[in-house]
Amino acid sequence: MKIVSLDPRVTRSNIDENTQEGVLHEKEHFQTYEVFEQKKRGTHHIHAGSVHAPSADLALVFAKEQYSRRGQCVNLWVVKTADIAATDYDDADIFETTSSKLYREPDAYKVMDRINAFKERQKSN
Amino acid sequence: MEFTDKHVQGLKDLLYKMADDLLILGHRNSEWTGLGPILEEDIAFSSMAQDKVGQSLAIYEILNQLGESDPDTVAFTRNANQFHCSKLVELPIGEYDFSLVRHFFYDHADAIRFEMLATTVVEPLQMVAKKFKGEIKYHTMHADVWMKQLAEGSDESKMRIQNAINETFALALGMFEPSDFEAELQEAGIFDGEFVLREKWLNKVVPLLESFGYSVPDATTTIPEFGGRKGQHTEYLQPLLDEMTEVFAIDPGADW
After folding, report:
1. pLDDT, one tens digit for every residue, chain B (256 residues)
2. Is B146 helix (H, G, I), strand (E, B) or coil?
3. Is B256 among the domain residues?
4. CATH number for the domain including B134?
5. B158 vs A49: CA distance, rounded Å
6. What's the count of helices (H) and strands (E) in chain A, helices before strands?
7. How many helices (H) and strands (E) does chain B have?
8. Pair B171, B236: CB distance under 8 Å
9. Interface contact flag, A52 B47, Cβ < 8 Å
10. Taking the domains of chain A in order of start, what are their residue ranges?
């Protein structure tokens, strides 16, 4: 059987389904790193995206060009995507809440961010 | 001190070789756009190629202030024998190993040259040197990380870079071809000269490559590929210029 693809160039190439050509083995492809950028000293690093790279050093070099090109960045972090622990989407119901306990939610922090930003603006005016 | 005609000539010669190196290598490296080994590297390499063209513009602008033609005319209407770039930068991109090693050798020389020019008496040049410090630092960082990565990669990756180092070294030494104005540039406080630059460069790149596990040919017995600074080029420069100026030549007076 030949490979039939949505990409006509692939179909035209008449590639056997069982081909071993082009199969990537371990270490033949790069892992991904998640990139976090800090816009100003003292602020949080914020997730910007991911890059393919063979090492953390190169991931940082690539991340600089992919995500922080136009200034406004003072620091970058990269973390192997595989090293990130995540919750399961099946457990998404743990985030559900009832309106009666909204007062216990950490929304106050968001308000503080806004208040602080307002104070900064007042100062700089 | 007052500049004599010789000082100005020497300064222009210095600026032309810097700008021409940047323009030609910028153009060469941009040929990798869309063909880079992976998307991330493609973007990084293309972006650095653009930086180089931008840096060349800044230096052509200084030349313009010194009475030379405007940057577009200077960049797009000269023939190969009027260019002062080194032979290193005009060679075709070859395989990625060659392009990376050229990038490593060239960018360290460029970084040190600009570092030396940070204290030049020529104020606009001093400002340019400071303005591009961060950009150039990233270029050398990118080159260093790749050299290290490929030394630690596979036997093939290390061998390819080692071969490229061996083949490129004489060309790289050709960057430091002395001009006819070395003494004038030094006495006027414009630039400490190609010899000082070459020594600083060797002290930087040789230990660095050796620390990654490569060997570097002996600089004292390697015959540098000179000629580029005096307008003697390889057969590869004129076709590059023909391609680079193709659109400009259709309508030189066009408003962009």
Report:
1. 688 999 999 999 999 999 999 999 999 999 999 888 889 999 999 999 999 999 999 999 999 999 999 999 999 999 999 999 999 999 999 999 999 999 999 999 999 999 999 999 999 999 999 999 999 999 999 999 999 999 998 899 999 999 999 999 999 999 999 999 999 999 999 999 999 999 999 999 999 999 999 999 999 999 999 999 999 999 999 999 999 998 888 888 887 7
2. helix
3. no
4. 1.20.1260.10
5. 31
6. 3, 3
7. 12, 0
8. no
9. no
10. 29-124
Minimum-distance CB partner of B40 among A55, A57, A62: A62
CB contact under 8 Å between A57 and B43, yes or no, is no
Q: How far apart are CA B60 and CA B144, in angstroms?
A: 29
Superfamily for domain range A29-124: Phenylacetic acid degradation B (3.10.20.520)
A62 touches chain B (CB under 8 A): yes
d(CA B87, CA B108): 17
Asked, for residue B254, whether it belongs to a domain, the answer is: no
Does the ipTM surpass 0.90? no
What DSSP character marks residue B192? -
On the CB side of A79, CA atoms within 13 Å amount to 12
> Please, what is the Cα angle at B21 between A71 and B57, to 5 degrees?
50
Which residues, listed in sequence order, are joined to residue A78 by a DSSP beta bridge?
A35
Look at the alpha carbons of B253, B46, B171, B108 in this order and tell me if their dihedral is positive or negative: positive
Chosen from A34, A61, A67 to mutate, greatest number of chain B CBs within 10 A: A61
Render pLDDT for A14-42 as a digit per residue (tens, 0 to 9).
Answer: 888 888 777 766 666 789 999 999 999 99
Asked if residue B253 belongs to a domain, the reply is no
Which DSSP string corresponds to B115-162? HHHTT-S-HHHHHHHHHTHHHHHHHHHHHHHHHHHHHSS-HHHHHHHH
| Chain B interface includes A30 (CB < 8 A) | yes
Give the count of beta carbons closer than 10 Å to the beta carbon of residue B158.
16
Residue recorded with tokens 């809440």? A97
- Quote the domain boundaries for residue B33: 5-248
Domains: count for chain B = 1
